[in-house]
Amino acid sequence: MKTIAVLTSGGDAPGMNAAVRAVVRSAIYNGCKVFGVNRGYRGLIDGDLFEMDLSSVGDIIHRGGTVLKSARCLEFKTEEGREKALNVLKVFGIDGLVVVGGDGSFQGAQKLSEMGFPAIGIPGTIDNDLAYTDYTIGFDTALNTVIDAISKIRDTSSSHERVSIIEVMGRHCGDIALYAGLAGGAEVIIIPEAGYNEDEICKKLIQSKNRGKKHSIIMLAEGVGGAQKLADKIKEKTGIESRATILGHIQRGGSPSAFDRIIASQMGAKAVELLLEGKSSRVVGIKNNEIIDVDIHEALAMERKLNTEIYKLVDILSI
């Protein structure tokens, strides 16, 4: 293993730059050349690669987003597109690839591994929706961004004595809403894994109002439904004034937290270590505070389960 390439793919996540930095510097420390691939699999097909040195990743550990950029690439999902990418890797003399991204990005790494090219995945996604790892890079930062937003929205919610519905990212995994709801003191959390009953929510809000509570926070994951629609229903059924706030892509930005920088650095170094050991078709993660690696097929096949203890705790504490 003499030459390694690294790319970031899918939705950007705070901490991706820290992972890229760790890959580059760990590889160079071990005597390898490193190439950066711009714009994910799109750049791989187009041959948009450049050699990186120590200076290439200087002063980026604190930056959000990804210096390598990211893009969706439908062409890579075809056999012809993957053949193009593989040819580019061979032309540049690359021996192994590190992919930073979510499950879609991992599927691309899996396909390359099946074609005989060594590839290692690093979990970079704010959704925290990969079952094999306790945390993905970017989740902690996104969580803190949401907590900050909750604090600000609570101020105006309290002033106007209204219900505030905060819609956060999470189409299939409600971890952002769940953890932010617990840390932010939300009265109701609505996530894809559990669903919700409008009448039960309205009943809870009315009971809260009757005991003197003048405002409430509802956390809603985007995969469940629209925040504005729910706000309208609450107003219609209870008469309580409700407002919807959709946080959107603000959750993806910002300087990564210390936690995300640390695990990204550890995972980046681990990915290089695996390639140098001749391993392929693996993904790196963190379990019980230990950096681990798992077979990529096994990782993608794992079913993400709801943390029922936290979900129940929110219900108990929001009485």
How are the secondary structure elements laid out?
Elements (H helix, E strand, L loop, with lengths): L2 E6 L7 H14 L3 E5 L2 H7 L2 E4 L26 H13 L4 E6 L1 H12 L4 E5 L15 H22 L2 E6 L6 H10 L3 E3 L7 H13 L5 E6 L5 H12 L3 E5 L11 H19 L5 E6 L2 E6 H6 L6 H10 L2
Parallel strand pairs: 1-2, 1-4, 4-5, 5-10, 6-8, 6-9, 7-8
Antiparallel strand pairs: 2-3, 10-11
Q: Can you summarize this structure?
A:
It contains 11 helices and 11 strands.
What is the terminal separation in angstroms? 58 Å
Question: How many independent structural domains?
Answer: 2
Query: For the residues shown, what is the average pLDDT?
Result: 95
User: Which geometry do the CA atoms define?
Assistant: elongated
Radius of gyration: 22 Å
CATH class of the largest domain: Alpha Beta
- One letter per element, helices H and strands E, the order comes to EHEHEHEHEHEHEHEHEHEEHH
How can the largest sheet be summarized? 7 strands, mixed
Low-confidence stretches: none
Question: Which CATH architecture of the largest domain?
Answer: 3-Layer(aba) Sandwich
Within the CATH hierarchy, at the fold level, what is the topology of the largest domain?
Rossmann fold
Number of helices: 11
List how many beta strands DSSP finds. 11
Q: What class, by secondary structure content?
A: alpha/beta
Strand order of the largest sheet: 3-2-1-4-5-10-11
Strand content: 15-25%
Approximately how much helix is present in the residues? 40-55%
InterPro entries: ATP_PFK (IPR022953), ATP_PFK_prok-type (IPR012003), PFKA_ATP_prok (IPR012828), Phosphofructokinase_CS (IPR015912), Phosphofructokinase_dom (IPR000023), PKF_sf (IPR035966)
EC number: 2.7.1.11
GO biological process, one term: fructose 6-phosphate metabolic process
Binding site for substrate: 125-127, 162, 169-171, 222, 243, 249-252
